[in-house]
Each structure stands twice: as structure tokens, then as C-alpha cells.
Amino acid sequence: MLLNTLAALCLAVLPAAPGSPALTPATIDGYIAQYREATGLPGVAVTVTKGKEVIHAAGYGRTATGDPVTADTPMALASVSKSFTSLAVLQLVEKGQVKLDKPVHGYLPEFQLADPRAAGITVRQLLDQTSGMADSAFREKSLPQPDSLQDAVARLRDARLATAPGTAYSYHNTNYQVAARLVEVVSGEPFAAYLKAHVFTPLGLRHSSTIDTDRDLPGSARGHLYILGQAIAVPEPPGFGNGSGGVLSSASDMARWLIAQNNGILSPASVKEMRTPSAQNPDYALGWELDKTARGTPVLRHGGDLFTSTAQQLLIPGSGYGVAVMANTGMAFADSAALMDGLVALIEGRQPDAPSSPFLATDLVFALLTLATVALAARGVARSRRWAARRTGRQRWRLLPYLLPIVLCTAIAPVFRVLARGRDIMWIQVVYLYPTFMIWLVTAAAAGLAVVVARLWRGAAQ
Asked: What transmembrane ranges does the database entry give (predicted)?
């Protein structure tokens, strides 16, 4: 009943909002236009609210399929979805069906790990990311991906914990997939149906939904990579995201969502729980991060990263402002975060940082290296007969350096895990993060193999 009343209030204020003297729809439009012109950002959806008013909700540019981005275009929220999952769990807490500090296993018997310590993981520890589950102990991205929340929990049966529950913070998507499955089992509804019935519909979120995998992304929510400064539409790499990153939403819906955060979406006690961080990480609460603006103003926020799109949401409790941004370029380029920072600067009366071009000198370097590698490989293959004539069998060890790019190519994911302090990744995802480097590396691996095969073949023919 409370949510239905809130939805009516939200809908009543959506059509018009005066904005503040310092921040108007025209100001926002001008800033977004400047940013897109400087960066080539293909498409973005933006909303800014204050109190119960919508200052602006709009779409700019085009989707990956070429359609205009409007205020009602569903786009990927990625990990911003975690605040929706947290809300769903806290709704069950308010109904007395779940207690935050009780073990998950009591509500979700199928939640079983190979580590006996997992029996002590509480619902709160899932939401504040202190369960002890971590990429370093369970490689959620590089393992075969599940098709459902039930499968996502089932694949944990061979997993172990990185730390004892409640002793350390580790951002791990599986925490929220387990939480979403808990919502399914306790409520008796599929997670997508639960969100629609208890969150989306009551709040008037007409263009929002949640999906399971990359295969379920609609055209409007697909994204791009920048290659040599140009945005290229590409499919999202394989991945499962429901509960942790599966929500799709629009600028108009996110306006309602942000307004609802300060207007009775939960009881004051539950809102306090949602915004209270753990002792292990004072900056992460239950699906929300605690942060400060450049001016030192306390904010609540959460970002979301896919490999082809990103999203951000932010609340400034002191002034009542809310901001959401969904950009259809990937995590390597951080367009939504840059736009969020710029909009916050406008709210605070500051000048946003000048946007920078996505064209990187390193991209040009690797493009030139790729061309040079192809040319050198062609030369090496063409001269293979001459090389074989000058070398005896004992000297063929000199071909080994040509195979080094193959070794690096096959080991790139483990190398990344080391450099990223244990964060998991699959091979194709490295390609999305560093496209020009990986194009060169794959080319170098193929070129080296071609030269080795040609020279050995010529040597055998001598």
C-alpha cells in the first residue's frame, strides 16, 4: 500500500520540474552535447532529480542498433542492479520473512559450499560483500556460466571461501546472485516476477526488467567499444548477471527510482540498515556505496560495469538531488562515471572537467605494431628456404622466441588475475578491455607460428 501511494506521488511530479537556477534541462543538454562531441559517445540516458521533482530525464544519441536513445529506452544498469536486489531482500525483512543476521542456509537450503564455514554466512554478509566468497576462491566469470539463479547457486557446491564469513570485504557478484535466489525461494516467485510485482510496478517503472544472461540483452541495451577513437557496436561477452547486474531501466524510470529512495520506499529503520556499511569496509553498505563529492559532500552511489556499457546512480541526501547515467560504452572507457562527476559538479556550482577523446596514442602504437608484425611475418615466411639452408637442426632452437607471443596469448587471463589482485576474468573479456593490444598479440602469435612452421617445413625438405 505504501509503495502504491508512493508511485502515485512519483507519477504526479514526473511531467514537469522547474529545476534549480544553477541546473536546468538546457544546462544538462549543453553539457551532454559537449561531452558527446568531444568523446564520440554513441548513446547515453541521463536523469537528474531533486526531492520529489524531476529536473530532467532524457536520452541522447543512438543505440547499438541505430535507434534513438530516448527517456524511455531500456539500457543496462549492470551492478547498479545490486541496490534493487538489496531492496527486494529488505522488503522480505520488513514482512518478517527474512532476518539479516540469520544464516542464508536457513532460508536457502540449496546454498551449500565445499567449505563448512559457509554455513555461517548471513544474509547481511551477502549484501555487504563480507561473506568470504571472492573471485580468488571461486572464479565466477571464467567458469561455465549458469542459465538461472538456481544454477548460479548450484555451481557453488565445489567452491571454498577466501576468508571466514564476516572478516573481510570482497566485491563478488555471486553474493548478489545468491541473495536474488533467496528472494525467489522465500517469496515463491521468480526473481524477475518478484521485482516486477513488488518494485517496478508499484513505483511506476514501466520500462524496467531484469534478465539472466548476455543473450537476453535487447538491442537497446547493447553497447560499444572504442577502437582507434571510433565507437564500434559489439555483442557483450558471455556472462550471467541476474541479481548482481541484470536490471534494465530507462532515464524516466530511474527518475522515479531515485525519488523513491527518499520518500518511503522502505521504513526509516530499513533505509538506515541499507545505508549502514560493515566494519570491514566503511564505504560499502547494502547495495550502496558511501562516498563524497570533490567538495566533500556525502553521497550514496553505486556504479555498474559491463564490457560494452556502464551505469551510475547517486544520491545527495543533504540536498535531495539524485543522478543516474547509463552509457552504451564499456568499462574500459568509464563514460558514465565521467558524466556523473560532471553533473555533480554542475549541481555543486563547479565547472566540470573537460572531456577527453577516447583516442589513445597506445591504440595507434599497437595498430602500427600489428601492421609491422604482418609485414615481418610475410618476410620471414618468404625467406624460410634461405633460413633453412643456413641453419642445421641443432640451431633450430632459435625459433623458440617466435613462439613467445603464443605463450603470452594463452596465459593472458592468469596474468591479468595477478595484476588485478585476484579478480577473475575470461580470455575474451581481456580482448574487450584492451582491444588493440590483444589484436596485436593474437596477430603476433599467428605470425610467429607461421614463421616457425614455414622454416621447419623448409628445413625438413632440405
From this structure: 359-378, 399-420, 432-457
